[in-house]
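## retry 2 of 3
previous attempt timed out at serialization; input unchanged, resubmitting
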Amino acid sequence: MNIENRLKNIENDWFYSEPLLFLAACSHQMVENSQMNVPLRSGRMRIEFNPEVLKNCSDMELSEYLKVEVYRILLQHPYKREPYNANKNILLIASDLTINQFYKTNVRLEGVEYLKSLTKRFKELENPLGEEWAGTEEEKFFMRNLNIDRQTGRFYSCDNLSFEDWYKWIFFLVKHISSKGQSAGHASLAENADFASDAADLWEENEEAQENIQKNIQKVEIDQGWGEIGGGLKREIQAQADFSMDYRRALSQFRQNIVSAARNLTRMKPSRRFGFKAMGSRYQRKANVLIAVDVSGSITDESFNRFFHAINNIFFLGIIEKIDVIFFDTTLKFSKPVSIKKKMSLKEIQGRGGTNFQCAVDFFTSHKEYNGLIIFTDGQGNPPAMRSTQNVLWILTTRLDYENSRPWINSLPGNKATYMPF
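## retry succeeded, writing output
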């Protein structure tokens, strides 16, 4: 029996035992590709397989390879929005590490093997990242999270991180650390980073694919069809189906709310349902939005640049027609909003003290020309006082910041929260 038929049989076996895996696998076309150098890869609504690489695999190994790829699809890694100039290899490493946290497979995951190859370096060298990084949080992070179980030989990490967080850490490891600190018997950190150059070649942002995956997840939740998927992996998959996790959708809903609020009744345009017996509606499509950017001491240069990149995307994609931007820590940094057309660096913003959301909220409430407020922040500050319902969307820097801040943000009238994945 050829590889494609064997994979189809595995899918069919999941119909009763693993309904979510069955739905996810069937939503993608199975395509043979003998030119790639990996067993399977996913993206663009298909699962590609290399029969030459898989020909000697047992049915158990073949099932494991397919299951890992379907987990990758359910976590939406091939369809998420990628950071600017994303490194595909590092995206794959981050995906493998995320899956490895929740599912211990017996088949080879290249990203896991890559970090396993670095554990010896971090255990034996005095300064594995070089002297300039000695004693830093970066060195402590990798010292803590690069471990191999002595009994099983499996790689494990102490911190359960999201896909986005793993990407940032591995990006730092591969791109920002040179061969400093290298000694005999230990490879450079950048060496062998391009181990699977085509494994993530099909990955590209696809909102329709994300919606289909979320619908499948919601279906199995209603039907209680999770199968053997449980624990941390189940929670991680459920999190991907949470509407609030997608900040672009949250922005679209935010815009709709603002447009709806700009409804004008008119006698000149009849109601579609009641004709001239009732007033019709005319909506003002333009909306004035204020964006407040947190530039306190806890905000990093990377976060600030991501804020600025996101603001420009909002403007040029036409999600919001007119945008004014203010910067704040304990106080507003400028007496009036600045244009987003002029790129600014965090070094230009003076102060960098604590965080006081109240000053940004007060500016918004005192300027009635704005229909809504978007706040970019890490959420580290006291909740502001709001006297009435406001159209406010909070976009947090990371998922962890989102989880920590969501309870008090949702308690504020008219406030919603989301976070940026990268």
